[in-house]
Design a protein that fits this description.
single chain, 50 residues, mainly alpha, 2 helices, elongated
């Protein structure tokens, strides 16, 4: 399993939990999902090692 696949799985889990959570927890989970998305976006922008 690659790191990207791990992040995608975590992102899906967090979004599923946010759908069922109360408003306070939902905001926190959405924030966490946003951080995972930024990690995924930043990781693809990195140059490949030589």
């Amino acid at each position: 399993m690659t790191y990207e696949k791990f992040l995608e799985g975590r992102l899906q889990l967090i979004r599923d939990l946010a759908d069922k959570a109360d408003p306070f927890i939902r905001r926190r989970l959405i924030g966490l999902a946003d951080r995972y998305e930024r990690k995924m976006a930043g990781r693809s922008a990195l140059p490949l090692p030589r």
